[in-house]
Write a structure and sequence with these properties.
With 174 residues, the chain is an alpha+beta fold. The protein has a single domain, classed as Pnp Oxidase, Chain A (Roll), CATH 2.30.110. The chain is 19% helix and 41% strand. The strands form two sheets. Strands 1, 2, 3, 4, 5, 6, 9 and 10 form an eight-stranded antiparallel β-sheet that branches. It has a two-stranded antiparallel ribbon with strand order 7-8. A hairpin with a 2-residue loop joins strand 7 and strand 8. The radius of gyration is 16 Å and the shape is globular. The two termini are 15 Å apart. Bound molecules: flavin mononucleotide. The site of flavin mononucleotide has 20 residues, from strand 3, strand 5 and helix 2.
Length: 174
Amino acid sequence: MGNINGYFKQQDIKDFNSNPFNIIGKDWMLVTAGNFDKINTMTASWGGLGVLWAKNVTFTFIRPQRFTKEFVDTEETYSLCFFDQSYKKALAYLGEVSGRDENKIEKAGLTPMFLDNTPCFEEANMVIICKILYHQVQEASSFIDGEFDKKMYPSKDYHTMYVSEIEKIYIKER
Ligand SMILES: Cc1cc2nc3c(=O)[nH]c(=O)nc-3n(C[C@H](O)[C@H](O)[C@H](O)COP(=O)(O)O)c2cc1C
């Protein structure tokens, strides 16, 4: 496992220079929400970073059956946490097992903490605090190619898209 020592320092978005295709699509991230009583997390490899409504935003996609969705829908904020390669196995596990069935955060060996009242993990090397602005369930009728819809959603469990303002970016300083 990587080094958890260090502290989180806020990064100005103009200094953000991570490649989203690598950090989300290739390395994956954790979507974490909850409160001081209970939190949950899940792995995500789909999503985006961009600009909308003159704000810097994240786009996060969550299927209805995810336990994490219940937490995201209850709170105003959630975090996106990014890790170094040594956590890939932990992320694979957190993306396979539901928090409904196991105390998966403890089993994955991650240490919950809060930044700006939003849950995240000490082991992360970067944390993005997201404030939900908008959520929308994807619709079958909006797909241009019906075959693609059938391929991606054979069970019709359409993702909810969350557009969230990037409130803060924290980088682990070692
Ligand atoms: C690499 C990877 C990427 C994933 N990406 C997403 C995603 O973007 N959206 C989603 O809803 N589920 C995604 N999942 C599935 C959830 O992480 C998985 O169903 C998880 O067990 C849900 O946990 P929960 O029920 O505790 O929320 C992904 C899983 C893996 C392994």
